[in-house]
Design a protein that fits this description.
Helix content: 40-55%
Largest sheet: 5 strands, parallel
Structural class: alpha/beta
CATH architecture of the largest domain: 3-Layer(aba) Sandwich
CATH class of the largest domain: Alpha Beta
CATH topology of the largest domain: Rossmann fold
Strand order of the largest sheet: 7-6-5-8-9
Bound molecules: phosphoric acid mono(formamide)ester, norvaline
Order of helices and strands: HEHEHEHEHEHEHEHEHHEHH
Number of domains: 2
Strand content: 5-15%
CATH superfamily of the largest domain: Aspartate/ornithine carbamoyltransferase
């Protein structure tokens, strides 16, 4: 098993299922208000080089519910990679805290942080991927549908960090994944090839949105310009508008298709108000499950570290 949670591609199908089982257990305990101080006295350092609502709140609340505490380190606090070398930050924090969660720009920085940290590092999003999000998303689909087998999950939009984590997931767990992105905004070819080479899932790239979503069980989208791409936002709007998740596009999916979005959403851009508010939408279940799945990830990593 891995010391860190950096990419879904590093985790086997059985390990992923174990995390989902533990997530369900911890969620049930939380709902019953049953104390579950599995990480009593643990401390979690949360390094943020980018803004966040869900990731910060769900990790901070989650470790508290497990009997531990969190430190929020804002983009101004540490200056990871600018005020201090990434590897020095990792070695110093490992002397104080039991787990590190980091949201960074370059994926190479989180790899370096994990390499030099003696404690587990959890990826809270990089420019390349967002594994905790897709673990929460898949768990949410499981809750709503009972199984992921044969599910046609269509990601419409930018071939970004969210798309990459979905592709990583499809490498480990069998699904039918369709990525529908405009030309020049498609996901990383090596990520695609590696997942396809695992031979478990059908993974398609389809550029026509209607063809992509036909008979889909899940329609998923994300912002057109990610954090760090703000200056491209206006130009991207024109290119991405045909990929908007709206009620017309939904009409081509299965009649009970689920609508998902990692949030924050830009209503009127990648998704319409009507679509996100419709009975198909499970975006707030997804947001809630970030906390439950991340608690399971932290417990799993801590158990492994303690042998
Ligand atoms: N989905 C997600 O990671 O949200 P935040 O950017 O608010 O943490
Ligand atoms: N692709 C988005 C995801 C936000 C949770 C971003 O990186 O900004």
């Amino acid at each position: 098993m891995q010391k860190d949670f950096l990419s879904i591609a590093d985790w086997s199908r059985d390990e992923i299922n174990d995390i989902f089982d533990l997530t369900a257990d911890l969620k049930a305990k939380t709902k019953r208000r049953e104390k579950h101080h599995i990480l009593d006295g643990y401390s979690l350092a949360m390094i943020f080089a980018k803004p966040s609502a869900r990731t910060r709140i769900s990790f901070e609340t989650g470790i508290y519910q497990l009997g531990g505490m969190a430190l929020y380190l804002s983009p101004q606090d540490i200056g990871i990679g600018t005020r201090e070398a990434v590897k020095d930050v990792g070695r110093v924090i490992s002397r104080y805290n039991d787990i590190i969660m980091a949201r960074l720009f370059a994926h190479s920085d989180i790899l370096e942080l994990a390499e030099y940290s003696s404690v587990p590092v959890v990826n809270g999003l990089t420019d390349y991927n967002h594994p905790c999000q897709i673990m929460a998303d898949a768990f949410t689909i499981l809750e709503h549908r009972g199984s992921l087998d044969g599910m046609k999950i269509v990601y419409i939009g930018d071939g970004n960090n969210i798309a990459h984590s979905w592709i990583n997931f499809a490498g480990q767990v069998p699904i039918h994944l369709v990525i529908c992105s405009p030309q020049n905004y498609q996901p990383d070819p090596k990520t695609l090839k590696d997942a396809r080479d695992k031979g478990l899932s059908k993974i398609e790239l389809i550029s026509d949105p209607v063809a992509a979503v036909t008979d889909a069980d899940v329609l998923y989208t994300d912002v057109w310009a990610s954090m760090g791409q703000e200056e491209e936002a206006e130009a991207r709007k024109k290119i991405f508008m045909p990929y908007q998740l709206n009620m017309e596009l939904l009409s081509h999916a299965t009649s009970d298709a689920l609508i998902m979005h990692c949030l924050p959403a830009h209503r009127g851009e990648e998704i319409t108000d009507e679509a996100i508010e419709s009975k198909h939408s499970i975006v707030f279940d997804e947001a809630e499950n970030r906390m439950h799945v991340q608690k399971a990830i932290m417990v799993t990593l801590a158990r492994h570290l303690n042998g």
